[in-house]
Amino acid sequence: MTDALTAAERRSLALAHDEHNPYEAVVPPIVQTSLFTFGSYAEMEETYKGLKTRPTYTRGLNPTVRIFEDKLAALEGAEDAMGFASGMAAISSTVLAFVEPGDRIVAVRHVYPDAYRLFETLLRRMRIEVEYVDGHDEDAVAKALPGAKLFYMESPTSWVMDAHDVGALAALAKAHGVLTIIDNSWATPVFQNPIALGVDLVVHSASKYLGGHSDVVAGVVAGSKAHIREIRAQTYPYLGGKLSPFDAWLLVRGLRTLPLRMKAHEADALDVAHWLKAHDAVESVQHPGLLNALPAGLTGTSGLFSFTFKDGIDVPRFADMLQLFQLGVSWGGHESLCVPGQVVLSQNQGPNSGHAFGIHPRSVRLHVGLEGANALKADLQTAIQAALA
Ligand SMILES: *Cc1c(COP(=O)(O)O)cnc(C)c1O
Predict the structure, then answer these.
(1) Span from the CA of 212 to the centroid of ligand 1 (angstroms)
(2) What is the DSSP code (8-state) at residue 224?
(3) What is the structure's pLDDT at 90?
(4) Quick check: helix, strand or coil at residue 115?
């Protein structure tokens, strides 16, 4: 399996000899400090004048955070990256760095619910309009783009798994001079490299696969040095959603096994998805790996997908009968998880009426973890049987 790693993966996941660790430690240290002191007035002044780059204060620059940022940039094939306290901090700081009142954003439909709520609350209050388009409909995208400031993509999306031709959409945006951002949390850089496909900025909820152990909430954005510098200048220091050194250290640990974990999630989720597709109780399965072909640029699939039951299934009973699949949001860790669509539809939080994120009331979202496909299929079968009765 190791041979299958790309050169960029090998470089970015490599152990620590390029990281100048004290004591030649193979794992980088957690530089758990708020501030860094100066040896002299001259050094302090030189740093403040910007003649020298060195850590001053952890909100601005921290060595452990920087190790994570460098690795993520290498994985995404980007010049630079910046870590954040959450995926939403990465998304909000990135979007807000490039828009002002009166601007229009074009976004694909079915984006992550809190990204949608950011657009529909804060951005609307700032008189920034967001127009939603079907990312499969390139004519509709081309029609919406002229005059827009930003094109916000998410592919695949995280409930109905809309999987777009990211390169084609990015080219359309470029032709109209529109800056592009993509949420790449589902595919990760292991299965999709949006920068190589022509996208300007890639955001992640690092709480999902990048961390990979359900023990950290974090985010990151990757892109050109100039774009990252813009985020650093316009929003990041003032919104202050910084990544903590300990969380960065957990992410560095998570990244070491990212390609191996993704290949395991891919194989077992495909196995479970094919099994569900053939099941009598199931109406449809939403998984990009079940399409005739993956969209250009998407080279593999992850562990998150959804399916829709036929009428006559007691979904709450199904959910309660699951043993291995636990009921819970988020995804990307070892454990398999289940979210019934009806629960999300019943959520009373912020503006989501009229925009159901593509969720069918009889749908169920699964995250296939690392417990093994056979055990997971047996768990689903027991629960489906009980829900039919
Ligand atoms: C979870 C998630 C986010 C938000 O990330 P947080 O780390 O929870 O702030 C953004 N996009 C997608 C697709 C997600 O699943």
Answers:
(1) 13
(2) -
(3) 98
(4) helix
Burial grade of 307 (CB within 10 A; 0-12, 13-18, 19 or more): buried
Residue 61 token pair: 């620059």
For position 25, what pLDDT does the model report?
86
List Cβ neighbours of 86 (8 Å cut-off, separation of 6 or more): 205, 207, 217, 218, 219, 241
Q: How far apart are CA 234 and CA 227, in angstroms?
A: 10
- Count Cβ neighbours within 10 Å for each residue of 145-165 and write b for 16 or more, e otherwise: beebbbbbbbbbbbbbbbbbb
Mean pLDDT within 347-359: 68
Please name each of the domains of the chain with its CATH number: 2-30+62-256 (3.40.640.10), 258-387 (3.90.1150.10)
Per-residue model confidence as pLDDT tens digits over 85-100: 999 999 999 999 999 9
179 DSSP β-pair partners: 150
Cα(380) to ligand 1 centroid in Å equals: 26
Ligand 1: residue whose CA is nearest its atom 8:
87
Q: What's the whole-model pTM score?
A: 0.95
How does pLDDT run across 27-86, given as a tens digit for each residue?
A: 899 999 999 999 999 999 999 999 999 999 999 999 999 999 999 999 999 999 999 999
Of the residues 84, 86, 91, 112, which should be mutated to test ligand 1's pocket, given the most ligand atoms within 8 Å of the CB? Answer: 112
Give the C-alpha separation, 95 to 80, whole Å: 17
> In this structure, which amino acid lies at residue 388?
L
Laid out side by side, the sheet with 104-108 consists of 80-84, 219-223, 201-205, 179-183, 150-154, 104-108, 129-133
Return the structure tokens found at 295: 């969209």
Q: Ligand 1: residues within 6 Å at CB?
A: 86-88, 112, 114, 154, 158, 183, 185, 205, 207-208, 217, 219
